[in-house]
Amino acid sequence: MKALDEGQLKNWRAYLDFEEKEGDLSSTVDLYERALVPCALYEEFWIRYARFLVRRNLIPAADEVYRRALAGFLNKK
User: Phi and psi of 10, rounded to 5°?
Assistant: First the structure.
């Protein structure tokens, strides 16, 4: 994995903002999963995804996102 530049990160943030506003849960989850491929090393995307799921009362799914993040991508602090 390689680091993304600020422009790429900004584009992913904007795309996720747009998709969340559209309101389709399935499409938004698909986009988060897609975003995590290039953004896996960025804690903000994992946290954002988990918080999105919590806001929709999908606590087990949010927990799984945190587990995946800690299992392979993020510092365990």
Answer: -60, -40
* Helix axis angle, 6-22 to 25-39, nearest 10°: 170
CATH, residue 35? 1.25.40
Domain hosting residue 21, numbered range? 6-72
Band of residue 37 on the pLDDT scale cut at 50, 70, 90: very high
Residue 73 vs residue 11, higher pLDDT: 11
* Number of domains forming the structure of the chain: 1
Residue 62 and residue 43: Cα distance in Å, rounded? 14
pLDDT at 16 over 80: yes
